[in-house]
Amino acid sequence: MKNPIPIAVTGAAGQINYSLLFRLSAGELLGPDQPIILRLLEIPAAMGNLQGVVMELRDCAFPLLHDIVITDDPKVAFIDVEYAFLIGAKPRGPGMLRSDLLEQNAEIFAVQGQAINAVASRQVKVLVTGNPSNTNALIAINNAPDLPSHCFAAMTMLDHTRALSQLAEKTGYNPQDIYRVCIWGNHSCSQYPDLRHVRFTQALSIEHFDADWNLNVFIPTVQYRGTEIIKTRGQSSAASAANAALLHMKTWIEGTRDHDWVSMAVLSDGSYGIDEGLVFSFPVQVVGGQFQIVQGIAIDEFSREYLDRNQAELREERQAIKHLL
Length: 325
Ligand code: NAD
Ligand code: LMR
What we know:
- The protein is of the alpha/beta class.
- Helix content is 39%, strand content 18%.
- Bound molecules: nicotinamide-adenine-dinucleotide (NAD) and (2S)-2-hydroxybutanedioic acid (LMR).
């Protein structure tokens, strides 16, 4: 039996984790022969609910779930962890923008960034899901000065799979036969789902999509999907978000497919004219556990407008939390 690997998950009593924790424990992240230890962080008020989730996890008798640690202390939760899912944060309700959450959630990511900096593995991979996720990731990065920024990413994988799903529905192809979709920018309604470089394993090419469908159906459907879920379900996306978190981390560990890329929000290095020091979603390729922003993609005038709008929005978010950086 291999040594168990610790995985930290925050917001462990929340909706997303009611799916994610069970999938992690079933071996979906690290494979069928890798035991894990779940290190679960919650606020004191949610400890009772978390105890119930732990009872259910134990009732599944997962062979790979070696141990569960629960705590309300970030400096305990993140000890030696190789993987950290930062999910615990307030979700938005109907009529709210994700940026409306900034004031309430920002502090969480300063505290957790500092704790990760102090006690996590030096190779830790930290995925920020709590909204507004790009700027929360920026806060965490700035509060973890001893760790390289490439230990952190924010989640636009759900937008990515939403885009794949729209294309699959339109073409009749299986989502896995679709390559090179990407999400640029902020995990907000301004994001730019970009189908200009999409490739299919079969004969269909991007010329089959007219500009009208792109502008009036594809882009807004992906941009507003989170809002529509809240309107329809009464609560923000949970199982699909858990799926995306799992897929993001798995891709970060195992790498992207040949000739494909995925979307991750990472600290900009100035690529595509985006300010260094903003966490921006780019197409990335992952090799050997490291992501690289895909270079050389042509940005036409139509796309530039979207990129600029996202940059302006992220600059504003950064300004609002500059005291935490
Ligand atoms: P939820 O309210 O069901 O659960 C959040 C949990 O976090 C709660 O149990 C709460 O007690 C806990 N929490 C709050 N502060 C904490 C702290 N300081 N430390 C540890 N735990 C803390 O919410 P949810 O539906 O699970 O969503 C969680 C977050 O993920 C929200 O901000 C939501 O908007 C965001 N989200 C992001 C994406 C994305 O694609 N990036 C997708 C879906 C949801
Ligand atoms: C989503 O995209 O579903 C999440 O970010 C939740 C939300 O507030 O839309």
